[in-house]
Design brief:
By secondary structure, this protein is α+β, with helices and mostly antiparallel strands. The protein has five helices and twelve strands. The strands form two sheets. Strands 1, 2, 3, 4, 5, 6, 9, 11 and 12 form a nine-stranded antiparallel sheet that branches. The chain has a three-stranded antiparallel sheet with strand order 8-7-10, with no helix packed on it. It is globular, with a radius of gyration of 18 Å. The relative contact order is 0.22.
Length: 234
């Protein structure tokens, strides 16, 4: 379940990779059922559009199948090929599940999730329902994570170039897509009478220059080695 050197190079070059692994049908159904239950019961924190809930946030803090998914081998094994053996899950970016229908408008504009290459994260998108051209699959602009940091995406020229180069990425239910969060991307418009549910997670390599625990991150694999030169090496 590790990535090959060729797959790692594709991620570095293009800014995204479809993991060779995916979640089982039973896992997807259990995760969907838990998410729909929390939506039905309006378990905070949630985000609304009009009178309906479109997102449940803080999925790590909800425990159970949510934490099991975040720490599962299907994600962490290929992710280790990109981040190394010491991996942290980010609590204050992503960490949510979206339920998109025909009226959903969030994240339809091309955007970046972070603004600088030195602070990027590896985002893993989990598709809990099949995503295709009709129901608004994710669109990415390959290689756009190499554009200058703080590139102004409201600039008309950049918008036109990005829009002309964006490609759709259909994914099966249970499919896993990893993106460099500097890449320009967006959700597509759902043109069906059905929903499209996905889970968005963010991961970092453990920061070797930060000592101690960070309340905004959870160590999900390995250790937190400290390599600052202000302390003697052990």
């Amino acid at each position: 379940m590790e990535l090959t050197p060729q797959e790692i190079q594709l991620f570095r070059h293009n800014g995204f990779i479809k993991f060779p692994t995916q979640l089982s049908k039973d896992h997807v159904e259990a995760l969907k059922a838990a998410a729909l239950k929390d939506i039905e019961e309006a378990v905070e924190p949630v985000a609304r559009q009009g009178d309906r809930i479109i997102r449940i946030s803080a999925v790590w803090q909800r425990g159970g199948i949510f934490q099991e998914t975040i720490t599962c081998d299907e994600i962490l094994n290929p992710l280790e090929s990109l981040l190394g053996p010491n991996i942290e899950f980010v609590l204050n970016r992503h960490n949510h599940i979206y339920l998109r229908d025909a009226g959903s408008t969030h994240s339809l504009e091309l955007h970046r999730d972070v603004r600088h290459w030195s602070r990027t994260i590896a985002t893993v998108l989990i598709y809990l329902e099949e995503t295709n051209f009709e129901n608004g699959c994710t669109r990415v602009v390959p290689g756009s994570h190499h554009l200058p940091a703080f590139a102004h995406l409201e600039d008309e020229t950049i918008q036109q170039i990005a829009a002309s180069q964006a490609i759709p990425l259909p994914m099966p239910a249970g499919g896993l897509l990893a993106i460099d969060s500097m890449i320009i991307h967006s959700a597509g418009i759902n043109r069906t009478d059905r929903t499209r549910m996905s889970m968005t997670l963010g991961y970092h390599s453990a920061d070797e220059l930060a000592s101690g625990d960070n309340p905004k991150k959870v160590l999900v694999r390995g250790t937190r080695p400290y390599r600052g030169n202000d302390e003697p090496r052990k």
